[in-house]
């Protein structure tokens, strides 16, 4: 046997042994890559929605009564409760910062059935005062816990107040009818939860303060119906507590489309 044949045989034996050994070893595969992190819920974007709930509080008025014959003057105060419902629409915009602080602006406009028809304070003669239309322009400040967003809010409020009926002051009847728009303020807090990428639900409380209605009227003797007095009245606070729930649809892609900035703090 030649030297070359010996070397060739030894090499072939080593290769065969290595192949057999590799076949007996367990196969090894690289671990799969980790799953991508869950998408962070983004509150930035424009939104609009609807809401509804309960509203009620108290209304106070100051009356000045001037007698005609004899000439007299009397100042009276009155206060009564109000209650009813609220339903409306809202729209606004949010900016979410890198530290999860959310700053926003929201505008809402509502129809309200908030009124009082308390005849007990007026000697059996009904006087109704109600808040029919209500709106607010508010700032919002919150902190996002993912899909959960608690916030505080406050700003300008405005509304249309109506007063109708008869005011009875010691047997003098004052037919009353007035309607006024006026401005005030509102503060409150709420929570919003992102159900889906573009849909969220919210629960909100607002305290709203308006002045209350104002006007004047001639008073008539309840027995003779002769004019005997003149009355002026002015609101001394028309305060309303609002508790409502709502749903919003957000245009997050619209913010990116028009270049809404991604803010970082």
Automatic annotation (TrEMBL):
Coiled coil: none
Domain Outer membrane protein beta-barrel: residue ranges: 52-251
Pfam families: OMP_b-brl (PF13505)
Keyword hit for Membrane: yes
First and last residue of the signal peptide: 1-22
Segments traversing the membrane: none
Keyword terms of this UniProt record: Cell outer membrane, Membrane, Signal
Compartment list: Cell outer membrane
InterPro entries: Beta-barrel_OMP (IPR027385), OMP-like (IPR051692), OMP/PagP_B-barrel (IPR011250)
Entry's Gene Ontology cellular component terms: cell outer membrane
Domain of life, per lineage: Bacteria
Similarity comment: Belongs to the Omp25/RopB family.
Protein name (record): Porin
Source organism: Methylocystis echinoides
